Amino acid sequence: MDNANKFFNSGFASGEAPFPDTAQMNPTEPTIGEIISKVNNLSTEQIESILQYQREHKVRFGEAAVAMGLANADDVMWALAQQFHYPYSGEHEDACSKELVVATSPFSPQAEAFRTTRSHLIMKMYNGSGPRKALAVLSADTGDGRSYFAANMAAAFSQLSGRTLLIDANMRNPRLHEIFKLSNTSAGLSSILTGRAVNNVIKSVKSMPSLFLMPVGTVPPNPLELVERPAFGLLVRELLTKFDHVIVDTPALSQGMDGAVIAARCGAAVILARQNVTRVKKLESAVGALRMSDTAIVGSIVVDH
User: Fold this and answer.
1) In angstroms, rounded to a whole number, what is the distance separating the alpha carbons of residues 92 and 128?
2) How far apart are CA 176 and CA 174, in angstroms?
3) In this structure, what CATH number is given to the domain that contains residue 269?
4) Tally of CA atoms within 13 A in the half-sphere of 85 that contains its CB
């Protein structure tokens, strides 16, 4: 059964009030039918024809609109997401790269895998014991999918209650601003660590109101020295008091010790290995670098991105 049919059959995709589940909804909330009509700019005549089809075939408004070619399955899922306040960047928005599957394809197997990983991390990191930690995302080599993983994991956490901050600490080859289609020409992490911070260092992510990004800003010539300064640790601790979840992208450990230093300041780390690419010796070396500090390794994940 495809995703659209799952929703149609659930009883949620109704555009009219007679169904018990919609009758109990807040009357100020738009119905699925109203959202679909507005998004597709349907005329009064088109809406009436959908309602007639709905009555004749005893189906939901969304299903009727799709059957008549006046909407598609993505329209229905996007409307559901709006009604249930579930951050979802469908084809109606171009707010982020398709790499951000948790936002652009939230009902896909890939997005479900990220949500499963999120649950495991919550059980490992947020068990109520010890001080709260930020999560650093590390890997041995470039191209292992750290930015892809960090961005999607942050998006998954932002779909829970509370606020999530994603920090791009890869001051060698930053990519998160590209995934979220945000500018990296203004102030960012490097500005803060050099004492040149100005306003608007943390940027909100369009279509995901609980997710925020701190980009690198200007790429510095001395990234390792910047994260080794006390300012970086102080910054992480301060941000943990402002945000419910803090996730930090890092450079590959093959490029230097930046990642290990960042992880030590964060307190927790997850290590990525790329399927059929990452060498065991390099992975062992990465783990060894982390063990020089008190960093808690909360997971090791094989990615095929």
Assistant:
1) 40
2) 6
3) 3.40.50.300
4) 6
The chain-wide mean pLDDT, for the chain, equals 81
- The per-residue pLDDT for range 13-59, each reduced to its tens digit, is 333 333 333 334 445 566 767 777 776 777 888 888 888 888 888 88
Residue carrying the six token digits 């890939």: 110
Say whether both 121 and 269 belong to one domain.
yes
**Contact present, 246 and 189 (Cβ < 8 Å):** no
Pair 244, 287 in one domain: yes
**In this structure, is residue 91 part of a structural domain?**
no
Q: Would you list the DSSP string of 229-268?
A: SHHHHHHHHHHHHH-SEEEEE---GGG-SHHHHHHHHHEE
Give how many domains the chain has, as a whole number: 2
> Which structural domain range is residue 201 located in?
101-303
What is the C-alpha to C-alpha distance for residues 3 and 75, in angstroms, rounded to an integer? 12
Q: Checking DSSP bridges between strand 208-214 and strand 203-205, what pairing results, if any? A: antiparallel
Q: Considering the domain boundaries, does residue 96 fall inside one?
A: no
Nearest alpha-carbon partner for 193 in 233, 166, 243: 233
pLDDT tens-digit series, residues 207-223: 788 899 999 999 999 99
